[in-house]
Design brief:
The structure holds 2 protein chains of 2 kinds. Chain A contains 24 helices and 24 strands. By secondary structure, chain A is α/β, with parallel strands linked by helices. In chain A, strands 6-7-8-3-9-10-12-11 form an 8-stranded mixed sheet. In chain A, strands 18-19-20-15-21-22-24-23 form an 8-stranded mixed sheet, with helices on both faces. A 4-stranded antiparallel sheet of chain A has the order 2-1-4-5, covered by helices on one side. In chain A, strand 11 and strand 12 form a beta hairpin. By secondary structure, chain B is mainly alpha-helical. Chain B has a domain of about 200 residues: MetI-like (MetI-like fold, Orthogonal Bundle). In chain B, about 65% of the residues lie in helices and about 0% in strands. Chain B has 13 helices and no strands. In chain B, helix 1 packs across helix 12 and helix 4 packs antiparallel against helix 7. Classes of the chains: A alpha/beta, B mainly alpha. The interface between A and B is large, with 67 and 51 residues. Chain A: One of its GO terms (biological process) is peptide transport. Chain A: This is ABC transporter ATP-binding protein. Chain A: Pfam families: ABC_tran, oligo_HPY.
């Protein structure tokens, strides 16, 4: 990061002693069809200057609403009571124009979606300059503001800032847009930055860059930061203090280390235990938190977490427990009447969670005992190529280029095996998947399913092969037809493949039980189910025809962590029981490590490293794998602060114009450190995939092991 | 199979999991299905409710009314010419002694029937053409969209007017076909656009990958998911078809005598509007009220089916303000 030459001006107001932001007993409610939604119920917290507060919770826990209340950005139908003091001044009750003087000047916000946070019709430079001008009319000239915008873009690490300031948002990649948004947020040297899931929409490598940038921004401005996230990993190394929210209230707060090591509220415990760990080699038991957050319209008396809590006792239903001090520390508070008993367990953190929630490691399938070479190949890809033509012109279409989406990839999946396919978005994962599922002759290379070459199929055989291969999609909302009952959804593949009515009626309830849902719910519509349940229904549909191979396209990335663990456990159980083979596409390496037997890392249409999962994760050979692994945050503050991050520069190059030789060389830290004659090898020769260890191949000229976990 | 029933994430907020060990807390009432929600939202819109009552009332009146009256539209009462409304002829009589109530009811019957049929046919054609073009793209799309564009630039009124001598004396159903033929194109374009987005949805892909044929995918997954659009469209189409028919009939191109429609009645009696107002006001009044009612219902349906509609929230805000005052 470049050191800043920008001189931030001295704040106009005298520096106020005490916290920057003090929220006391905040209540927010909205009207809805079902009654008033009590989104935030009595929330109190404070942020000191230069401090990072992490707010963690599932979706619907009120974390975003509470920060929007601070910004005064809630719709007028919201009812807000309590007190929000910013530098000692009360914000509730102030008019919009008054708040506008504070917003963007003293408090700024970084939103989740960088695309919608920027106006598409103005250049990025203009938008940053506007953020400055709007608060300093007269004091700053237009030219000075424009110059400042360039400096800010440079500060957030955008190369060629002067050039890029004239670009429009759509010409920026997602990571660069988020940088521009952060540049805008720090433009006026704010005293408080609120970051609402700033990295959720980004790839892991970019996420690491953005987190680093937020840290820099904090150092430069000395502001207090509130970072809202659902990912306990993201805040582990970044936040000073943590607040866990549930059902509109804080259920635990304290220093980051205390919460990660001695969580005293069962919900926090469950959250910690539900995250698959990247740094744990042996099979780890994932804790699914049963049930889902309560509806906030009419909460029953008692602890809102009680229906999902493994430690629930009768006393839990009588009154909502207040936040009390635990472990004799005045920093650490938890809202649970049984904190003492949790403290009494010997295990710490995630292990305690597994113990209390009773999670068990899923057994290995029978087939896993057979050596890999002796098992049948379920799916084989041999140098598969997929290209798209780039056309120009309206009347006469000329071909002006080719997008090499998949540039010759080779892998196979054997019976009862899970292959994790990972890579950044745009690397060709989904294209590969669609090629496999389409069962059409590939543009180059060969695809074979269960030993049958796809190119030789006639339409009848193709239809038959579809029985043995099914798919589970990412988005549980979009993957079930909202107009069909669950019964029809699950029965559809069997109807297509000509099962008799009786057979279908027998099979559907069986499938429901198999995925852990009750058959009585068959007449309901998908809209009545939660995300996790819908994903289970999607899995039931995929299993209807008793397939040999299930293709999973990011099956858990759209789910909350607590629900995610349940679905992962289910997938593992099914695999072991039914001897399924999975092709598991994901960008979350921790999940892949947990569930996969082998992993293939893709970069720009090519597989750069493939092999047995522990070998690849513990001794990664390819610099890209190393960078990916090091970018994943580990939910352990101590480890996280000690880790050395490999930050990749820039974004994925365009697959229409990939770099010569090694495709990764433009972003490769290893390449940059090599002497020129060795660099030439990278530029001129495409590295072949070479065996590095038993069942472990990597495509790098200068492959060397580097521990990153 | 011995599976531990994972009640995991099965405790629905909507009370989906009654009886499971995890929902010890009392569940709020009955599950709110989508249908019920739409109904509640629709019922809240008083104007739409009034519109619905009017439409149903008018259909009932048009088809049941004539049986209650002792007069028929093709018989004359030679004891009453151009009489204003009185007990015997509640809508009065025209200059040859026909009962205006019977005549208006007959006209209303014809107009409403034509409106309903035209709306049904044109919306069905629009759904089929639009979904086919959007789903298959390529040559099918080009050909179908070419037809749509062609029909859009043709002046429908003129063409039907020119063709009217040809279907004179033939069934009124030909008029329905003609009107429908010129009313489906814009909807077909909207349907095509929606199909393009629906096609990318994962449930359509899932159906494709399980081997479902294209025609079943369109019928089972694509068209039902546009139901709200199609319902609104059909409703509004009833109104515009009635208007188009009356317009044509007014100029003598539509429904031919001895049959009558609201349009022919209005056309015939337009010059008597000031002198013998009952001849004109009853058919015209029914037309205006009907079209107005259709539009109210259309608005109400749109608000009820559109989840982003803010009507409800605005209402509550007003309530709280009143309470505070």
């Amino acid at each position: 990061m470049t050191t800043s030459e920008i001189q931030f001006d001295v704040p106009a107001d005298p520096v106020v002693e005490g916290p920057v932001l003090q929220v006391e007993d905040l209540h927010v409610s909205f009207p809805s069809e079902a009654g008033r939604v009590q989104a935030v119920r009595g929330l109190s917290y404070h942020v000191s200057p230069g401090e990072v507060l992490g707010i963690v919770g599932e979706s619907g826990s009120g974390k975003s609403v509470s920060s929007l209340a601070v910004m005064g950005l809630l719709p007028s139908s919201a009812r807000i009571t309590g007190s929000i003091k910013f530098q000692g001044r009360e914000l509730i009750g102030r008019g919009d124009s008054e708040l506008s003087k504070i917003r963007g000047r003293r408090i700024s916000m970084v939103f989740q979606d960088p695309l919608s946070a920027l106006t598409p019709v103005y250049t990025v430079g203009d938008q940053i300059a506007e953020a400055i001008l709007v608060h300093r009319k007269g004091a700053v000239s237009k030219a000075a503001a424009a110059k400042r915008a360039v400096e800010l873009l440079d500060l957030v690490g955008i190369p060629n800032a002067a050039e890029r300031a004239k670009a429009f948002p759509h010409e920026f990649s997602g990571g660069m847009r988020q940088r521009a948004v952060i540049a805008m947020a720090i433009a006026n040297d704010p005293d408080l930055i609120i970051a609402d899931e700033p990295t959720t929409a980004l790839d892991v490598t970019v996420q690491a860059q953005v987190l680093q940038l937020l840290e820099t921004a904090q150092e430069v401005t000395g502001a207090g930061i509130v970072i809202i996230t659902h990912d306990l990993g993201v805040v582990a190394g970044f936040a000073d203090r943590l607040m866990v929210m549930y059902a509109g209230r804080a259920v635990e707060k304290g220093k980051v280390d205390e919460i990660y090591q001695q969580p005293r509220m069962p919900y926090t415990l469950g959250l910690l235990g539900s995250i698959p760990r990247l740094d744990v080699g042996e099979k780890q038991a994932l804790v699914p938190i049963t049930g889902q957050p309560p509806s906030l319209t009419d909460l029953p008396p008692g602890c809102p977490f009680a229906p999902r809590c493994p430690m629930v006792v009768d006393a839990c239903h009588t009154a909502e427990p207040p936040l009390i001090e635990v472990d004799g520390s005045d920093e650490h508070h938890a809202a649970c009447i049984r904190t003492g008993e949790i403290a009494a367990t010997d295990a710490e953190g995630a292990e305690a969670a597994a113990e209390i929630f009773g999670a068990e490691v899923v057994e290995e399938p029978e087939i896993a005992k057979v050596p890999r070479e002796q098992r049948d190949i379920v799916l084989g890809l041999d140098h598969v190529v997929k290209e798209y033509a780039v056309n120009k012109g309206v009347v006469f279409k000329r071909r002006v280029g080719t997008v090499h989406a998949v540039a010759g990839i080779t892998f196979d999946i054997r019976e009862g095996e899970t292959l994790g396919l990972v890579g950044e978005s745009g690397c060709g994962k989904t294209t590969t998947l669609m090629e496999i599922l389409g069962l059409e002759k590939p543009m180059g290379g060969e695809i074979s399913v269960l030993g049958t070459n796809v190119s030789s199929l006639d339409s009848k055989r193709r239809f038959e092969i579809r029985r043995d291969m099914s798919v589970v999609f990412q988005d549980p909302m979009a993957s079930l037809d909202p107009r069909l009952t669950i019964n029809d959804v699950i029965a559809e593949p069997m109807q297509v493949h000509g099962y008799s009515k009786d057979a279908i009626n027998r099979r559907v309830p069986e499938l429901m039980r198999l995925v852990g849902l009750r058959p009585e719910q068959l007449s309901r519509y998908p809209g009545e189910f939660s995300g996790g349940q819908r994903q289970r229904i999607g899995i039931a549909r995929a299993l209807a025809l008793e397939p040999k191979l299930v293709v999973l396209d990011e099956p858990v990335s759209a789910l909350d962590v607590s629900i995610q663990a349940g679905v992962i456990n289910l997938l593992e159980e099914l695999k072991s029981k039914l001897g399924l083979a999975y092709l598991f596409v994901a960008h979350d390496l921790s999940v892949v490590r947990h569930i996969a037997d082998r992993v293939a890392v893709m970069y720009l249409g090519k597989i750069v490293e493939i092999g047995e999962v522990d070998s690849v994760f513990d001794a990664p050979r390819h610099p890209y794998t190393q960078a990916l692994l090091s970018a994943i945050p580990i939910p352990d503050p101590v480890k996280e602060r000690q880790r050395e991050r490999i930050l990749l520069t820039g974004d994925l190059p365009s697959p229409a114009n990939p770099p010569s030789g090694c495709r990764f060389r433009t972003r490769c830290f290893l390449h940059a450190s090599l002497p020129p004659e060795k660099q030439r090898t990278c530029i001129e020769l495409e590295p072949p995939r070479e065996v590095q260890a038993p069942d472990h191949e990597a495509a790098c000229h200068f492959a060397q092991i580097r521990q990153v976990l | 199979m011995t599976v531990i029933l994972n009640e995991g994430d099965s405790a629905g907020t909507t009370g989906a999991a009654s009886g499971s060990p995890v929902d010890a807390a009392p569940e709020p009432g009955k599950a709110m299905t989508r249908g019920r929600l739409v109904l509640i939202r629709f019922m809240r819109n008083k104007l739409a409710l009034v519109g619905l009552v009017l439409i149903v009332g008018m259909y009932l009146m048009a088809f049941v009314g004539p049986f209650l009256s002792k007069w028929s539209y093709d018989t004359q009462d030679y004891s009453a010419f151009l009489e204003p409304p009185y007990a015997d002829h509640i809508f009065g009589t025209d200059k040859i002694g026909t009962d205006m109530f019977a005549l208006t009811m007959r006209g209303l019957q014809k107009s409403l029937l034509i409106g309903l049929l035209v709306a049904l046919i044109s919306t069905t054609v629009a759904a089929i053409v639009g979904a086919t073009a959007g789903y298959f793209l390529g040559a099918a799309d080009k050909a179908l969209m070419w037809v749509v564009d062609l029909l859009l630039v043709l002046p429908s009124f003129l063409i039907i007017a020119i063709l009217s001598p040809w279907f004179r004396g033939k069934s009124w159903f030909l008029l329905v076909i003609m009107l429908a033929a010129f009313q489906w194109m814009i909807t077909a374009r909207i349907v095509r656009g929606m199909t393009l987005t629906l096609k990318e949805r994962e449930f359509v892909k899932a159906a494709k990958f399980m081997g479902q044929p294209a025609r079943t995918i369109i019928a089972k997954h694509i068209v039902p998911n546009m139901a709200s659009l199609l319902i609104i469209d059909a409703t509004i189409n009833v109104g515009s078809a009635v208007l188009a028919e009356t317009g044509l009939s007014y100029f003598g191109f539509g429904v031919q005598s001895p049959d009558v429609s609201l349009g022919t009645l209005i056309g015939l009696n337009a010059e008597s509007a000031t002198t013998f107002p009952w001849l004109f006001l009853f058919p015209a009044g029914f037309l205006v009220v009907f079209v107005l009612a259709v539009n109210w219902v259309g608005d109400g349906l749109r608000d009820a089916l559109d989840p982003t509609s803010t009507r409800v929230r605005r209402k509550e805000k007003k309530d709280t303000k009143e309470k505070a005052a």
